[in-house]
Amino acid sequence: MENLIDVLGRESTEYEALLQLSQRKTPIIAGGDLAELQKITDEEQELVSRIHNLDRQRAGVTADIADVLNRDVKELKLPNLITMLSARPAEQQALAEAHDRLQAAVRGLKRVNEQNSELLNSALDDALFGGDGPGFGARFMAVVAAAEPERQQQKQDEAFFHRGRGFP
Question: Which of 29, 33, 125, 154 is most deeply buried (CB count within 10 A of its CB)?
Fold first, then answer.
């Protein structure tokens, strides 16, 4: 159980860092700073790689726990596991706190990514149908192209959280 709590904690830390990057990205998208947007996108890719590694570790630890408990790993969601730990309140609380922390980070990341997506869409509309003079459309299309990895990351995050891991 300690391994699972540890992996969840490290995964939360990485998601919180990703959230901070996404929050930094908002004014950069609005300002159209392509160089800074590219730097943040590169940092995000490193974080995403670490998150995927931690996800694999968590899946392995969860599979080990399922074997020990003689349960189907597909049915062993964190809320179920937290409930099963009622006889071990210290571990139950630690696992619940790790779960809550990860959920909070993911919800925050989803919210900021949605805001950034709306900002990109709004600016794209301006570029195509209004904007602030010649060249604006081309500048903004470059910003949109540079932000495409964020859109792909958002899709990956959504797929991850809808795979049935017991997260929102």
Answer: 29
